[in-house]
Amino acid sequence: MTAHEASGLLRNREISSVELTEAVLERIGQVEPNLGAHISVTSDLAMKQANAADLAIQEGVVHSLCGIPIGLKDVLSTADVETTCGSRMLEGFVPPFDATVVGKLRGIGAVFTGKLNLDEFAMGSSTENSAFHVTKNPWDLTRVPGGSSGGSAAAVASYECMVSLGSDTGGSIRQPASFCGVVGVKPTYGRVSRFGLVAFASSLDQIGPIARDVEDAAILLEAISGGDSNDSTSLHVEVPNYCEVLGRSIEGLRVGVPVEYFGSGLDDDVKELVLKAIDQLADLGAEVVDVSLPHTEYALATYYLLAPAEASANLARYNGVKYGYSNLESVDVSDMMASSRARGFGEEVKRRIMLGTYALSAGYYDSYYLKAQKVRTLIRSDFDEVFQNVDLLAAPVSPSVAFSLGDRIDDPYEMYMSDAMTIPASMAGIAGLSVPCGFAEGLPVGLQMLGPALSEPTLLQAAYAYEQEAKILFKAPSLDV
Ligand code: GLN
After folding, report:
1. What is the per-residue pLDDT across 296-323, written as a single tens digit (0 to 9) for each?
2. Is 271 annotated in the active site?
3. Which of 55, 194, 329, 458 is most solvent-facing, going by the fewest CB within 10 Å?
């Protein structure tokens, strides 16, 4: 059942939120030992919220997410609930406040079932960088769920919650959504407040929904969007009714196919499915044309200077004094800071901090950081230019289906390559999503759609039209090894 279906039943009192939440918690109990999508399961909080939601529904409160079980990526500050970012550094850290998005969902009566696993501080593409445990792909337990929001995608795909929130800095919502066969939306930079999202790369980070269909994603996106005085980068632009556009025809919509996304390195199976999906958009009346984004090949290198540079500054706050892990056996202050960071952070996080510090250091700043900023502008101009002629772009999300656990973890460069197709849109700050477009080798494949800033209504409209036409409607994974 999707959230919008459950919401109808809740409102007609055919089920209660308590029943729904109990069913979800039971499901978590069944599959979690094999899957590992959660860092913590918040059963007591969920039951309390479910009871409150049932009362609110009796009194006629009608937000469609009232009483719906929702999972939260463990990078979102949640009042009185441990928030670890998948790191030893923040193990046991209980924030005193809600992220803006968490507060919004709490306010409309959503039920929080747990905090979901991720790569440490959202750095990774497989969820194998979590300090606690790996998460497996529900379609094949020997494969990765993608990352960094791997727990958020795996939990939704395996019915451990109805919808979830993830965060996307360079692809961390779209890629796991693609690998797990669910819908994931990366909103326009600034569309959703980042207040209370633990910062990785502040000029890129965005929170977004993961859902089993486009309608659920639209409902959740609407609930979390909007300007926020606590986030000066948030956009104070009216939030549209995202569900209103669902079901509208896409006749005449201009869809660009960026040639750079279909070159060597793209698996044949994935290519075939994505091209078939684009044909289906044409059958629905879209005008499909080839376009070029010539600076695409520089996006990955640029990202791996800028994102680590921002991370190295953001993660300076974890010094053993204010937050989380502190080595209490150190001999003096400087040893305390150095050893707390050495022990509290995992390998990948340390690699990023070192890369970023290097790119920002005197003598290298101009040739690395500043140059990367200039290339970022070129990448953004590529998108600006193509969006003069097309309404949206259609492309693969990832060059392959979910890879095997352990396959890429010892080769950071190979892992970074997984994001070559999601990073350019992040650099440009534009909107994007992943919608399931079929199965290759029994594993899900996602179609990526990208649109200009604040084009979420068009993207959702097109994704919905495609979803209804292709009828790759959600089916449950068997969770077999
Ligand atoms: N996989 C990319 C990285 O490792 C993107 C991560 C993200 O979007 N949070 O940085």
Report:
1. 999 999 999 999 999 999 999 999 998 8
2. no
3. 329
Same domain, 291 and 305: no
Residue 188 CA to ligand 1 center (angstroms) comes to: 16
Q: How many Å lie between the centroid of ligand 1 and the Cα of residue 7?
A: 33
Question: Is residue 283 located within the same domain as residue 404?
Answer: no
Q: Both 243 and 219 in a single domain? A: yes
Looking at residue 479, what is its pLDDT? 79
Burial degree of 322 (CB within 10 A; 0-12, 13-18, 19+): exposed
Q: What is the mean pLDDT of residues 77-92?
A: 98
pLDDT at residue 8 in the model: 97
Residue 51 shares a structural domain with residue 66: yes
Q: Indicate which residue of 87, 172, 193, 400 is catalytic.
A: 172
> Which domain covers residue 323, as residue numbers?
297-375
Asked whether residue 156 falls in the same domain as residue 32, the answer is: yes
Span 326-366, pLDDT tens digits: 999 999 999 999 999 999 999 999 999 999 999 999 999 99
Catalytic (active site) residue 186? no
**Is the residue at 438 inside a domain?**
yes
Domains of the chain: total: 3
* Atom 10 of ligand 1: nearest residue by CA position: 123
How many whole angstroms from 122 Cα to the centroid of ligand 1? 6
pLDDT of 294: 98
pLDDT at 57 over 60: yes
Is 104 a residue of the active site? Answer: no
Element (H, E) at 314: helix 299-314
Beta-carbon contacts of 184 under 8 Å, excluding residues fewer than 6 positions away, are 149, 153, 166, 168, 173, 174, 176, 177, 178, 208, 209, 210, 211, 217, 433, 434, 446
Q: Looking at the structure, tell me whether residues 269 and 244 fall in a common domain.
A: no
Q: Which atom of ligand 1 is the closest one to the Cα of 200?
A: 9
* Pocket lined around ligand 1, Cβ cut-off 6 Å: 122-125, 148, 168-172, 200, 307, 419
Q: Distance from the CA of 418 to the center of ligand 1, in angstroms?
A: 10
Local confidence band at 473 (pLDDT 50, 70, 90 cut-offs)? low
Question: Looking at the structure, do residues 205 and 110 belong to the same domain, yes or no?
Answer: yes
* Catalytic residue chosen out of the listed positions 148, 149, 152, 158: 148
